[in-house]
Amino acid sequence: MKHAAFLFSFIFLLGLPLPAQSEEAQVSPQKGKAIYKAHCMGCHGIHGKGDGPDAANLIVSPANFHRPESRAKSEMDLRGTIIWGLAFSPMHGWWKKLSGDEMHSVTAYIRQLAPHQPLRP
Ligand code: HEC
Q1: pLDDT at 13
Q2: Ligand 1 neighbourhood includes 83 CB (under 6 angstroms)
Q3: 112 CA → ligand 1 middle, Å
Q4: Across the 121 residues of the chain, what is the mean pLDDT of every consecutive 10-residue run?
Q5: Binding site membership of 28 for ligand 1 (Cβ less than 6 Å)
């Protein structure tokens, strides 16, 4: 019994500083929403349909996140575009302006607006 109690408290102590928990606190769709409103909504629109007020002036239309092809993309794919941007496109990379957590959060918010759905074969 003594052993079990020791083992239990040991696991408990180990469990406390789990990095996953603190990461979760930094990344959330709520935080992403504020970032989206500040930086992305002008082009991508309030609902992510690519119809923001700045979209009219662009040669390449902002992505509509509700397109089946866009909804089929993984969060990794979306995050890659957000981090690095796209060549020859008004969608530039955000790695200089946003932190990793902020880009995580804004991706989570995009997936809240337009949930992931794989393409049907
Ligand atoms: C100046 C206008 C503009 C702003 C501001 C902008 N985007 Fe974009 N975004 C675009 C355009 C245009 C495309 C489509 C590019 C293409 O197809 O070549 C795009 C594409 C994307 C894609 C790829 C979507 C897909 O279906 O593959 C993601 C993700 C994205 N933007 C996220 C963001 C996020 C997050 C922000 C804010 C941090 C942001 N964008 C700000 C114009 C913008």
Answers
A1: 56
A2: no
A3: 16
A4: 63 55 74 98 98 95 97 98 96 97 98 96 79
A5: no
- Domains, the chain, ordered by start: 24-113 (1.10.760.10)
Asked whether the beta carbons of 52 and 44 are under 8 A apart, the reply is: yes
What letter represents residue 66's amino acid?
H
- Cβ contact 46:113 at 8 Å: no
**Region of residue 58 (phi > 0: left; psi between -120 and 50: alpha; otherwise: beta):** beta
State the DSSP code for 85: B
- What is the number of the ligand 1 atom nearest to the C-alpha of 98? 38
For position 120, what pLDDT does the model report?
84
**The amino acid at 118:** P
3-state secondary structure 28-96: CHHHHHHHHHHHCHHHHCCCCCCCCCCHHHCCCCCCCCCCHHHHCCCHHHHHHHHHHECCCCCCECCCC
